[in-house]
Amino acid sequence: MRVTRETLLKLTKDTVQKCFVPDMNVTAVFLVGSLRPEEAAVESTADVDLLVICNGEPPVEREIVKLSNDFHLDIAYQAASLYAQPRELRGDPWRGWALWDPCLLHQKGRFFEYTQSIVRSQFEDIANLIKRARFFSVPAREAWYAMQLDPESANPRKLLEAVYNAANGLVILNGPPIPERKLLADFPARAQSLDQDEMIQTLFASAAGAVNGELISQWRLAWEIAFKAAAQSPLDARLHAARLGYYQAAITSQLESDLPTAALWPLLTTWALAAENGSFDADQTKAWAGVCAEMGLGADALPERLQALDAFLDRLEEILEQIAVENGV
Q1: Other residues' Cβ atoms within 10 Å of the Cβ of residue 268
Q2: Looking at residue 45, what is its pLDDT?
């Protein structure tokens, strides 16, 4: 059966009507993410991103709801209080872009119209642009300092999180953040559009040592075993069993692209999460340690990764300072 955007949208609207419309604590529900544009193409395996605004404390931060073997809802819950000062959202790259042009599925009152109108006003001002960039660059630099000063506290997940923030600190200058699954796949084009081609290799060097598509393909079975082990009792919603096919599809499509090494990112980030889930047996622990050694994520290679990350952040900070000076911010 061919699944279209309209099919998924109907399933989503039915879920919203059943689960959220009757809930008096739900202020609004939005469709966000890759399925939002009307012209969006539906992949064979995909998620549907929902943002649920709650009047009061949300029941959970994130929830995965399986729709079928190939599709699931990825629901983010947030308190309405986070949106009480719409002007501040202009400097928030996640909430600001989420409210820029979502698909409204439900609301009580006029929360959306009021909030969006203020967010959009002056959204492109340089001061707000720099705020959105520093939202990512500052924690990336703080993480670098922490790992530099205390290498024993570092681990692959912390490093990759810093790399992700660093990358988005740059690309936020010409659009929304890159979704985690597609970071290395989308970053080159975004960097090139900013005339920052030289930062592409530096970012890849920050994430791992020398790697190629053949190696990634060889690691897929061990990665899948690790994911399934963590999915039995996941501490992070990204490891939910319903998301396995979602990541498998991303890895496959990226391996078959013109940039097969981009597949390293969805494989690596989820594997690093699974490694911290406390669900590995001895064989899975050994497999992960071996992959880290090959990819340059072990303790011996950490200085090389941190050096590349430092170079990337140095250049990013120079760019932001230059923009600020040129615009008197």
Answers
A1: 25
A2: 84
- Average pLDDT for 271-281: 95
Residue-wise over 118-141: b if at least 16 C-beta within 10 A, else e?
A: bbbeebeeeebbbbbbbbbbeebb
Question: From the CB of residue 61, how many other CB atoms can be counted at a distance below 10 Å?
Answer: 10
CA–CA separation, 241 vs 232, rounded Å?
7
> For 224, what's the count of Cα atoms within 13 Å in the CB-facing half-sphere?
13
CB 69 within 8 A of CB 245: yes
Closest CA to 157 of 25, 258, 269, 257: 269
Alpha helices in the chain (DSSP H): 5-19, 86-89, 93-100, 111-120, 126-149, 156-171, 183-193, 198-207, 213-231, 244-255, 264-275, 282-295, 302-326
- Alpha-carbon separation of residue 259 from 38, 254, 269 (angstroms): 27, 7, 18
Q: Which of 213, 223, 203 is nearest to 272 (CA)?
A: 223
295: nearest Cα among 115, 121, 156: 156
Phi, psi of 279 (to 5 degrees): -115, 0
Give residue 128's pLDDT.
98
All structural domains of the chain, each given as residue ranges with its CATH number in brackets, are 5-120 (3.30.460.10), 127-315 (no CATH)
Look at residue 31 and give its three-state secondary structure: strand
d(CA 239, CA 278): 12
3-state secondary structure of 50: strand
Phi, psi dihedrals of residue 209, rounded to the nearest 5°: -80, -160
Sign (positive/negative) of CA torsion 253, 188, 267, 289? Answer: positive
User: What is the pTM for the complete model shown?
Assistant: 0.95
3-state secondary structure at position 61: coil
Q: CA 326, CA 328: separation in Å to the nearest integer?
A: 6
Decide if pLDDT at 5 tops 90: no
Structure tokens at 282: 């001895």
Would you state the pLDDT for residue 283?
A: 96
